[in-house]
Amino acid sequence: MAPSSNYTLIALLVAFAVVAPSLQHQSAAARDGGVAKLVTAPAPSANGEVVVLHPTASYEIPDLPLPRIIPCPPLFPKIPFIPCYNVAPPPPPPPPRPKECWTTLVKSLVPPCSGFLTNNGGACESEAPSRKCCDGVKLFLSGDRSVYDPLCLCHVMNGDVSQLLPAAVNHTCALALVQACLDGVNPQPFSDLCNNDQSIKDEMPPMDLPEPPPPATGNTA
């Protein structure tokens, strides 16, 4: 190639490098202006009325056709083009269970249900338990799980609660109490689980916390 041709090619390249950014800027401005006009400019309708297009229209960038194998960042905006899957937060830990049943039985069940459970005067044979008694029983299923444990009712089924009553629990009355107060709970299978299922016995909180061992006494000379 002749020297003059080389000079001409170099001059064209330099001119293009100088002019290209301004052309790109003008093109972007024209494009943005055109988009703005398309978005904000009123469009005439068929009956001559002016229809204003929504200027706040938004568009989502589609993801690449890839499998969702990475979790979406929980605290940051989603990465464009990269498919991801939402990660559900872990469930909260269950509340701590009560360590004994004495407190809740004395507070909620014994005072209003004592006469019914011991069949005092034929109470459980002639009438239903009082509303206050049933409300106390229901707390063991619907109350705060850190305070009320459903398995504390097993101490009613197995007779342990007798130590809190003026007389021994009448087992027939205990079954009648569950049937009257707890909808959907079959009293006899519930009693069988409390009395015969070892796994239930292992999970059942005790009536009262065991007494701490006596302090060790040192040898005296």
TrEMBL record:
Domain Bifunctional inhibitor/plant lipid transfer protein/seed storage helical: 93-182
InterPro entries: Bifun_inhib/LTP/seed_sf, Bifunc_inhib/LTP/seed_store, LTSS
Keyword Protein biosynthesis: no
Keywords for this protein: Disulfide bond, Glycoprotein, Signal
CDD domains listed in its UniProt record: AAI_LTSS
Annotated signal peptide: 1-24
Similarity annotation: Belongs to the plant LTP family.
Compositional bias annotation for Pro residues: 207-221
Region of interest: Disordered: 195-221
Entry protein name: Bifunctional inhibitor/plant lipid transfer protein/seed storage helical domain-containing protein
The species this protein was found in: Sorghum bicolor (Sorghum)
